[in-house]
Amino acid sequence: MRRFLLGAIMPVLFLGVWEISSRTGLLTLESLSRPSDILLAGIHGLLDGSLLLATFQTFEAALLGLAIAAVIGILSGAVLGLLPALERITGPTIEALRPIPAIAFMPLALMMFGFGVTLEASIVAYACVWPILIVTVAAVRAIEPRLLDIANLLELPFWKRMLTIILPAAFARINVGLRIAAAISLVVAVTVEIVLNPRGLGYNLILASQELKIGLMYAQLVWLCILGYLFNAILRNVGTGSIALWGSAR
What is the pLDDT at residue 131? Predict the structure, then answer.
């Protein structure tokens, strides 16, 4: 609690100076709004449901894309981690595709899927799969070799070896890649909405800017900041709990 209070000193001081300066005329820029007006605009957006609907639309695409990336990245990364020869074959292709910005695929995704959640989720999935894949490869290679020897002795099928030995042993490291990808998913989802897809928080942000609703625009930016912080905190706690649960099950 003490740490939270200390951390709140600078933001509260900044907001106070901002509010006073705007009311006394020291800040007269049309692109700025008062913190009190931003708060009122945010409350109004929550009460009329527009902000919540946009939040649902953004997270629908972000989480769907993240889930697709997690399945592809973890399974592919585990296979490549277990088979270094295969990783050497596919490595150049991965390194050629990975630097391409996900946003560059928007025209292609639009032609394939049209506007909507599928368009957004496909671009999010492309952006998120690479950190998950790379971290999973490294995590699987770092597994204690004796665990793999035990799996060979027990002659476990591939899927059972994955679920009972490989993924539990590597999940603590894989979770790092998932958290990185989760942050990317929200960034990419909002970017796609700003640039192309007429839905979600990004699109509402552009609409507020074009309609000169400066308070609402800032309120949505603050809301995105809060959502990003909560999203990361939830994933951190879920990941910690999953690691503990998986470890006790083993």
Answer: 92
Query: What is the predicted pLDDT for the residue at 116?
Result: 86
> For 50-83, what is each residue's pLDDT tens digit?
899 999 999 999 999 999 999 999 988 888 887 8
Distance, CA of 32 to CA of 25 (rounded, Å):
12
The CATH number covering residue 113 comes to 1.10.3720.10
Q: Cα(205)–Cα(195) distance, rounded to whole angstroms?
A: 11
> Looking at this protein, which amino acid is placed at residue 79?
V
Nearest CA to 239 out of 247, 250, 227 is that of: 247
Provide the H-helix boundaries in 83-143.
84-97, 106-113, 117-141
Which residues span the domain enclosing 143? Answer: 52-249
Chain centroid offset of residue 48 CA: 26
C-beta of residue 119 within 8 angstroms of C-beta of residue 129: no
Say if 43 falls within a structural domain: no
Structure tokens at 195: 């640039």
